[in-house]
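Researcher: Here's the sequence for the chain we discussed earlier.
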Amino acid sequence: MFAGSQVCLLASGMATFMHFQDIKAWQKARQINQILSSLIDQGRFTKHRNLLLQIERSAGSMMDNIAEGFERGGNREFLQFLYIAKGSCGEFRSQLYRSIDRYCILKSEFQKLYDLSSETLIYLQKLINYLEQAEMKGWKYKNRQELSGKTTANKQTGKQANQQNSTQQ
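Model: Thanks. This is the structure I predict for it:
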């Protein structure tokens, strides 16, 4: 269904993500973007073009950085992009205040979007905390680790075979 079947292995109580779409923080960020798109389509930000561009970029940045970091396949890179997504989440919340102050959104819309961004932030932080403690470096390193283990095992098996041959002669 989706391009690539990369796996980010997260053990110890964390889910295994087959696609970035499986990540709760990404799902929450998508909900934010859907609501924001609806408000934009209603013409709520027409008098405030710069605010429109900024709030749309920060909302999109949350989703996009989670996806890009995941697709890179290494925990260090993923962490870097999760921190960027977290920063975008803070920027988005600040822009919500500007949006309500300029009467682009209602108080109830502000609260819904603020709550969703807070949930996104919580999911991001939990994932960051896990990845910082994870022993596995990421799926792109998985094959490298397996290959280096096999190479070491093959070298040892080869040495054992040579020793047996020399003792039999």
